Amino acid sequence: MKKLESSLKNMALALTGFSVVAGALLGWVNDITAEPIAQANAKTLSDAIAVVVPGFDNNPAEAPQEVELNGVVYKIYQATKEGQPIGAAVESTANGFGGALKVLVGFDNEGNIIDYSLLSHAETPGLGSKAADWFKKGAKGDITGQNPGEAPLTVSKDGGQIDAITASTITSRAFLKAVNDAYAAYKKQSGDTTVATDGTSGATYHAAPVDSVNVDNN
After folding, report:
1. pLDDT per residue over 100-143, tens digit each?
2. Residue 183: how many CA atoms within 13 Å on its side-chain side?
């Protein structure tokens, strides 16, 4: 019995020692990787801003503004050239088929869409992931140059003018909702009081319910 108790005690001490060492190693690894990761994320964001609002000579990522709509906080990166505003990039998130879909949308001073960047998503590879390019200039779902303040962007299945990603209507709806919400945040930040309180735009955005989506959608 004493031998068994001794063995159990030794095992407990060994496990405790292992846990302490493992925890210390994890903390050390986290410390030495935190800064490189932060720098990489900052560069990714800066590069994305340069794509969606080109031509600025300030550092938009340095001091983002925050706007709250319906309990959601949106980050707005103001772009200026020679001290004059030329637009802004707005981060916005919506729930797609596989999870959160985050986009960065660039608007000019009038609220027209310059470009966008898909920052992250959890959509189906080869289907929903096509949102990264589908709505770009010259693509089937091209949204560049459009102004969500004139009419919220919606897919053609919902009566809109935007072609949804093939077999990915849910993702397309989520993407366009994120863009509409980004516009609403941008206009609220600029002091436009015509933005609807539902956090979309001056005109109300209506997304079709998920259960009405055809079975061929992702």
Report:
1. 999 999 999 999 999 999 999 999 898 888 999 999 999 999 99
2. 33
Q: Please state, in angstroms and rounded to a whole number, the distance separating the CA atoms of residues 40 and 44.
A: 6
- The answer, as to whether pTM is greater than 0.85, is no
Query: In angstroms, how far is CA 156 from the centroid of its own chain?
Result: 23
Length of the chain: 218
Task: Give the CA diameter of the chain.
Answer: 83
Distances (CA, A) of 179 to 13, 104, 114, 117, 197: 56, 8, 12, 11, 16
